[in-house]
Structure formats: structure tokens, C-alpha cells
Amino acid sequence: MRCVVLDDYQGAALAHADWSGLDVTVLREHLDDPADALAEAECVVIMRERTPFTAELFARLPRLRLLVTSGMRNASIDLAAAKEHGVTVCGTGSAKTPPAELTWALILGLARHLAVENAAFHSGGPWQSTIGVDLAGATLGLVGFGHIGRAVGRVGRAFGMDVVAWSQNLTEDRTEAEGVRLAPSLHALLGQSDFASVHLVLSDRTRGLLDAAALACLTPSAFLVNTSRAAIVDQAALLDVLRHNRIAGAGLDVFETEPLPVTDELRTLPNVLATPHLGYVTRANYRTYFQEAVENVHAFVQGTPIRELAHSQ
Predict the structure, then answer these.
(1) For the residues 124-146, what does the mean pLDDT come to?
(2) Is the pTM of this model over 0.85?
(3) Residues in contact with 110: Cβ distance below 8 Å, sequence separation at least 6, in sequence order
(4) Residues tagged active-site
(5) CATH 2.30.130.10: does it fit domain 97-274?
């Protein structure tokens, strides 16, 4: 079976799984239009949402029979179009801990100005130029309280932070069990947060949820962290508050366009600490992704597909 692995930025696919018996091509560079490169592919393996699979793309790939994505949820795949074109879509497992860990890398980086101090250290700049923000006694606001949000909250409590959470269906019994306060509304949560961290699934009701009115609730000393999905935060509104220093800064791992264009304004703002969507990028996760991707291909070839994605997601 002719397989193409897309967006393997680190060249990790072949090193983390045994692809014996499969005709595999690995593409490391992102392609804005991958149709020509996939013209002969019967199977395509994609990493999360790096390359969207739209109805238009499916229509241009008549040989495609199997699409494998890392993780069991991928909002950039048109599952209805896949079904219409006779393409089976399968996923893999994905650990919840890596994005929670990266969230704390961003929080700590913002609080202690690590990017500024590290750059000065290596360039021979000033020896200490910033004053850090204390986490102990500060308020951590969690927008979303699923597996990742709860993990982030536990670390916040270990740091001695006051942790408060909110989501549309969150109840007090769930927060009390974690020693976390329940905020009555999103705006109330943001208004009391020294650090606000987003941990929601992108859906029709969460898209643009943190709009200009919500971001206006943050204080000028507050930080916003987003390791979930960029579209949950209104990007124009976020740029506005960052440009005018209406918040202290933002820690970002997700962007509306990825890779982020080199001309994007987010790359120039000094109050932005950013990573290139590294939340799930760890050795253990990559082993899971690629080993289970290979399992998915073999199962499909044998006529018994596994880990199929539901078309209703």
C-alpha cells in the first residue's frame, strides 16, 4: 500500500515505528497544496491538524482509501466528505500530559521573563533586567476543566495558587473535588485571573468565545495562555490588547495559520512568548502516533479497520 506521511517536521515517523511491508514516502516540509504530492497515495498519515483535509482536497485524490490522523479528534478533516469519497479515517491514541506540561513551560516563562533573560545571557546583554511575578498567592483561571485543565490546575495548587475554573457545563461538585473554585461566568473568571489558561475543545460554541468583551475583563497585569486551539480566542481582539499592553502578555502554542507566516505581527510583539504548536510533541506521543498509525494501515489492508473516527464529531 502506497503511504505518504505529511508534515513530519522532525523526521520522526520512520524512527518511531516499523513500517516494514509498506511503501512509505515521508514529506518533512509543509505543503499548502499537497494534492500533487499525494496523487498516487492510497494512504495518507497526517499529524494532528497541520494539513486540513477538505472536501475539495478529497475530490482531488481519487486513489486515496485511508486517512490516518494522530489523535482521535481532528477538526480539520471533513469527515462527511471522506465518507462520500469512500475514504476510511482512523486515529491514534494521544497522551493528555504533554500539553499540560507545555502550558506550565509557558506560564513559568512569562512569569520569570525567561525569553528575555536567556537572550541577554547568550548575547552578552544585561545581567538581570526583569522582575519576576510570583505564582504563590496568584490566581490561575482555567477556561475549560477537562483532563488537561484539571492537570494544569493540580500543578497550580502545588505552586500555592488560587485556582478557579469555568466552562459552559462545569458544575461545582467537579471543581470542589479538585480543590478548585467555580467561577459564575467566563467574564468573572477572567476578571480575577493573574494567569488565564485555555483548555477547551474547539467547537461551534467555543469558536471566538474569548472575544473583545471577554479579553477586556483581563487586568493589565494578567497573562493569557493558549495551548488549545487558536480559534477559541478572537485573534484580532488578542492582537489589539497585546499591541496596546492591555494585558501583560500572552503565551501561545497555537495559531490560526500554521506554520505561522514570518510576517505575522505576533512574531514581532515583545509581550508574546510563543512555541510552534509543541503541546503534543514528545517522544512518547510520537511513538504512540506512528506505531498506532502503522497498526491502522495493516488492519485496513486486512479488511478490519481499527480506531475509526466517528463521522458525527
Answers:
(1) 98
(2) yes
(3) 133, 195, 223, 225, 248, 249, 251, 273
(4) 229, 258, 277
(5) no
